[in-house]
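Wait, mind explaining this?

_____
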Amino acid sequence: MLKVRGEAFAEKVNDQHDYHRGHPSFDELMAQQGTAPITAVAALHGDFWPEEEDVEDFIAAYREWRGHKQPRTASPLDPIIEDLKTLPPEKLQAVADFIRGLQDP
Protein backbone atom coordinates (compact mmCIF):
# COMPACT_ATOMS: atom_id res chain seq x y z
CA MET A 1 0.00 0.00 0.00
CA LEU A 2 2.76 2.43 0.95
CA LYS A 3 4.65 1.76 -2.25
CA VAL A 4 1.53 2.47 -4.33
CA ARG A 5 1.04 5.83 -2.58
CA GLY A 6 4.72 6.64 -3.07
CA GLU A 7 4.51 5.83 -6.77
CA ALA A 8 1.36 7.93 -7.15
CA PHE A 9 3.09 10.83 -5.40
CA ALA A 10 6.18 10.44 -7.58
CA GLU A 11 4.02 10.52 -10.72
CA LYS A 12 2.28 13.65 -9.45
CA VAL A 13 5.61 15.33 -8.73
CA ASN A 14 7.06 14.32 -12.09
CA ASP A 15 4.00 15.67 -13.91
CA GLN A 16 4.24 19.08 -12.20
CA HIS A 17 8.01 19.46 -12.05
CA ASP A 18 9.81 21.74 -14.48
CA TYR A 19 13.19 20.10 -14.95
CA HIS A 20 14.49 23.09 -16.88
CA ARG A 21 14.33 25.22 -13.72
CA GLY A 22 15.54 22.48 -11.42
CA HIS A 23 12.98 23.02 -8.62
CA PRO A 24 9.20 23.09 -8.41
CA SER A 25 7.55 26.48 -7.96
CA PHE A 26 5.83 27.50 -4.73
CA ASP A 27 2.48 26.84 -6.35
CA GLU A 28 3.61 23.35 -7.32
CA LEU A 29 4.91 22.65 -3.81
CA MET A 30 1.67 23.89 -2.23
CA ALA A 31 -0.36 21.67 -4.56
CA GLN A 32 1.83 18.66 -3.76
CA GLN A 33 1.61 19.25 -0.02
CA GLY A 34 -2.05 20.25 0.06
CA THR A 35 -1.36 23.64 1.64
CA ALA A 36 -2.51 27.18 0.88
CA PRO A 37 -0.97 30.62 1.29
CA ILE A 38 -1.26 32.27 4.68
CA THR A 39 -3.78 35.08 4.40
CA ALA A 40 -3.67 36.39 7.98
CA VAL A 41 -0.70 36.95 10.26
CA ALA A 42 -2.88 35.85 13.18
CA ALA A 43 -2.71 32.31 11.79
CA LEU A 44 1.00 32.26 12.68
CA HIS A 45 0.39 33.31 16.29
CA GLY A 46 0.72 30.58 18.83
CA ASP A 47 0.19 30.66 22.57
CA PHE A 48 2.73 27.99 23.35
CA TRP A 49 5.29 29.72 25.58
CA PRO A 50 4.89 28.70 29.25
CA GLU A 51 4.45 31.74 31.48
CA GLU A 52 6.87 30.38 34.08
CA GLU A 53 9.67 30.09 31.49
CA ASP A 54 11.95 33.08 30.94
CA VAL A 55 12.80 33.61 27.28
CA GLU A 56 16.32 34.73 28.23
CA ASP A 57 16.91 31.36 29.94
CA PHE A 58 15.72 29.59 26.80
CA ILE A 59 18.04 31.63 24.56
CA ALA A 60 20.98 30.94 26.87
CA ALA A 61 20.19 27.20 26.88
CA TYR A 62 19.79 27.19 23.09
CA ARG A 63 23.18 28.83 22.63
CA GLU A 64 24.72 26.34 25.04
CA TRP A 65 23.13 23.39 23.19
CA ARG A 66 24.50 24.74 19.93
CA GLY A 67 27.96 25.11 21.44
CA HIS A 68 27.93 28.90 21.28
CA LYS A 69 28.02 29.55 24.98
CA GLN A 70 31.06 31.54 25.86
CA PRO A 71 31.77 32.53 29.40
CA ARG A 72 31.08 36.22 29.84
CA THR A 73 34.02 38.12 31.18
CA ALA A 74 33.51 41.17 33.33
CA SER A 75 33.84 44.46 31.56
CA PRO A 76 35.04 47.73 33.09
CA LEU A 77 31.78 49.20 31.76
CA ASP A 78 29.56 46.81 33.75
CA PRO A 79 29.10 49.16 36.74
CA ILE A 80 28.24 52.05 34.41
CA ILE A 81 25.73 49.93 32.51
CA GLU A 82 24.09 48.87 35.77
CA ASP A 83 23.82 52.53 36.80
CA LEU A 84 22.29 53.45 33.43
CA LYS A 85 19.61 50.79 33.93
CA THR A 86 18.36 52.66 36.98
CA LEU A 87 17.93 56.02 35.22
CA PRO A 88 14.48 57.30 34.29
CA PRO A 89 13.83 57.35 30.52
CA GLU A 90 14.31 61.13 30.11
CA LYS A 91 17.72 61.04 31.82
CA LEU A 92 18.72 58.00 29.80
CA GLN A 93 17.76 59.86 26.61
CA ALA A 94 19.92 62.81 27.70
CA VAL A 95 22.88 60.47 28.19
CA ALA A 96 22.30 58.88 24.78
CA ASP A 97 22.13 62.34 23.14
CA PHE A 98 25.34 63.35 24.88
CA ILE A 99 27.13 60.21 23.66
CA ARG A 100 25.88 60.76 20.11
CA GLY A 101 27.21 64.32 20.30
CA LEU A 102 30.64 62.97 21.18
CA GLN A 103 30.59 60.73 18.13
CA ASP A 104 29.64 63.49 15.67
CA PRO A 105 32.62 65.43 14.27
Summary: The chain has a mean pLDDT of 76. Helices lie at 2-16, 26-33, 55-65, 78-85, 89-103.
